[in-house]
Design a protein that fits this description.
This protein has one domain: Rossmann fold (3-Layer(aba) Sandwich). It is 30% helix and 26% strand. The protein is built from five helices and eight strands. Helix 2 links the parallel strand 2 and strand 3.
Length: 186
């Protein structure tokens, strides 16, 4: 039996992605000097969806898209109980002078975004960086980081854990909340 509570099912999930795409088009038009970069590993699922939908809406390959690994830029990669596994960085363009939209599934403490900003510097100096997250956990931010485009906001107690599930992995798109992280891992 599933212990988590579904806070967004397939229908709301799809509507949220559609709304985020419309907001991006409203702000960036045809994406002439703007690129989309998914943060590995979990931001890539959302990045893939956004990239595909934006190209559908804009009528072709109009959006540069990359995937950024941040494993060795994390401030905790040496202190974790089990070793972190690196994902490939797939960024075949420089971000020099471009507007970059960083994409992640859940914005929580802000540490992932900090690591992504550091890693991003190896690919040039962007003109501007914006953050898009499917879920903003709002409470317990460790760093002064906020999203520019937020799919949904979840206010939860300290130990609560939010997990985004993708149909590519679990046969269904949904967002769940658990009482704590150990409950989510069972």
């Amino acid at each position: 039996m599933e212990k988590g509570r579904v806070i967004a099912g397939q229908k709301r999930f799809a509507l949220t992605i559609e709304r985020l795409c419309q907001q991006l088009i409203e702000q960036h038009g045809a994406f002439e000097d703007t690129c989309l970069i998914g943060i590995q590993p979990r931001g890539v699922f959302l990045g893939d969806r956004l990239h595909q939908r934006l190209e559908d809406l804009l009528g072709g390959p109009a959006v540069e898209y990359g995937k950024l690994d941040i494993t060795f830029y994390r401030d905790d990669f040496r202190t974790r109980a089990k070793p972190l596994s690196a994902s490939p960085t797939e960024l075949d363009f420089l971000v020099e002078g471009k507007k970059v939209i960083l994409v992640d599934d859940v914005l929580y403490t802000g540490r992932t975004v900090q690591a992504a900003l550091t890693a991003l510097n190896h690919y040039g100096r962007p003109k501007k960086v914006e953050l898009l997250a499917l879920v903003d956990r709002r409470f317990n931010r460790h760093l002064p980081i906020q999203g520019d485009y937020i799919g949904m906001t979840v206010d939860a107690v300290d130990k609560a854990f939010v997990r985004v599930e993708w149909k590519e992995q679990s046969n269904e798109d949904r967002v769940l909340i658990f009482a704590d992280k150990s409950e989510a891992e069972e």
